[in-house]
Amino acid sequence: MGRLALLLVLVAACGGAAPAGPPLPASGVVLLALHDGSFRGSRALGSDPLAVAVSADGRSAFVSDNVGGVVEAVSVPDLRPLWQRNVGGRPGPLLVTAQGTLLVSLFAAAEVIELATADGSVLAHHAACQGPGQIVVTRRGVMTACASHGFGAAWSGMTMWRADASGALLRGEERIPLPPHMHPFWLEPDGAGGVLVAAEGDQEDRDPGGVFAVSAQGDVKQLLPARDPDQVALVAGRLLVAAHGEHAVLTATPAGSLTGRWAAGSSPVALAGDLPLGLLVVVTNARE
To answer: What share of the chain is helix, strand, coil (3-state, %, to 5)?
Structure first.
């Protein structure tokens, strides 16, 4: 077997990592194919991008720039700028509503603003706690996590779940502890009344963290170890983790078997599935 043929065989046998692409932006947006993580495009964006959401038709992505105080929309898949709105207030988590509007959590303004996805115009203001984090929409209206307890929140099993950064989840009045040295950051409904949890270690950039599944019955199971996991999501049957400290998007089965490391060498902080276009939208931020 010739040297080139042998090299091709070895590369094919390695698996796991997505096909290589151009250099990834230190801070910006990266598009990956949902079926294999291959590179589909990128754009440098903002000074401190923190969160991302995708429109229902998959044709627009919205990114909050925390320090810059702006929310920006880009087209998908060509990543052409659509609009930019200066909102101030340290914008963070985003949520596209069932009505097609965009909710923006303003950490320093104690409110959630509602924007039109077409042009970024402000439609409404929703009062929130001091230091609002993740956004949840329930029959009672717009609700958020609060920095006094933790950043993460989710509505699952007809119940509000909140992160307690000291090392537990709060389901209503019930406290569900995580293993020692694990501090929940991001929560995601699991579709079965429980939640998925991205948890940081004692020192997020140094100590091991992990991804956990907490069932509707309150059982806690670690799915993956991960350093500084900023977001977890279940998209198209894959568990996807924006693992900032691992410098990759970790991919796994829903049961937690690691299957790949996408966008290796990047600094992912947020992600959103774009099912209509078969893409994963990833936000990177090397300064976070």
So the answer is: 5, 55, 40
CB 265 within 8 A of CB 240: no
Tell me the pLDDT tens digit for each residue of 92-125.
Answer: 999 999 999 999 999 999 999 999 999 999 999 9
pTM confidence score: 0.91
Cα 19 off chain centre by: 22
CB burial readout 101-132, b (16+ within 10 A) else e:
ebbbbbbebbbbbbbebeebeeeeebebeebb
14: three-class secondary structure by DSSP: helix
Contact 252, 213 (CB under 8 A): no
E-assigned strand segments in 70-131: 70-75, 81-86, 91-96, 101-106, 111-116, 122-127
Q: Residue 76: its pLDDT value, please?
A: 98
Cα 133 to chain centroid distance, Å, stands at 13
Distance CA 56, CA 68 (A): 26
